[in-house]
Amino acid sequence: xxxxxxxxxxxxxxxxxxWGRILVFxxxxxxxxxxxxxxxxxxxxxxxxxxxxxxAHPWFVDWRLAAIKRSPQACxxxxxxxxxDAEPIADKVEPNGCGWMNGVSLSAAxxxxxxxxxxxxxVAVALALWLEHDVQPLAREMLGTSVASxxxxxxYACRNIMGTALLRKVRSQHAYANAxxxxxxxxxxxxxxxxRRDWPGSAAEARFLRAVHQRACAYFRVAxxxxxxxxxxxxxHFDRGPFSRCK
Length: 247
Known about the structure:
Blueprint lengths: L10 H27 L23 H6 L5 H7 L5 E6 L2 E2 L5 E2 L2 E7 L2 E9 H23 L3 E6 L26 E9 L4 E3 H4 L5 H13 L5 E3 L11 E4 L5 E2 L1
Parallel strand pairs: 9-11
Antiparallel strand pairs: 1-4, 2-3, 4-5, 6-7, 7-8, 7-10, 9-10
Helix pairs in contact: 4-6
């Protein structure tokens, strides 16, 4: 009896189909993540719930903040009393590429006075969440009183990033009013917490500053402290740009 030749194996073909499906799945998941992260899903079509400033530590907070980016209506529905005092401002687009869209003038957030004449709504909401649900509870716990005001070093400035020669060729998020600088806090008992003075060491003020900086990383994609470089020796830099860094 003549032996029959074995049938050709289908394993390579099956493996090819399986890897193809995996690749398609990865591309779909990655593409969906990018779309949500960049705020391309408008609030009426976004399955994620709108942020409520009264609720602490919202899940998927980064994507939910991004959803506000291009929606003045969502901004107005989020930044409201008693959690924030903000007024919408006209869009500004400079010929050199600087400027902002969907901006606000922020005067209070989280029970503290905050002065930022021009900042994107996305950053203003992130700041309000951080102040109300992290900074204020930590101040009461670690310093025995609440924060009365935030010491600001500004938000909008048409300039490039400070740092290495390579970075200095890149626009800062300040150029789009998508960043804020915080120099410290004034407490309700009159004390001043200065990042330049109080960041070093292990005193209660230093521990408070390190704790609130770490908490800010949940809301801001970039949260830089004096530990990052010498240019930030006297302030925190927070922004909602495309990159992520917490240091």
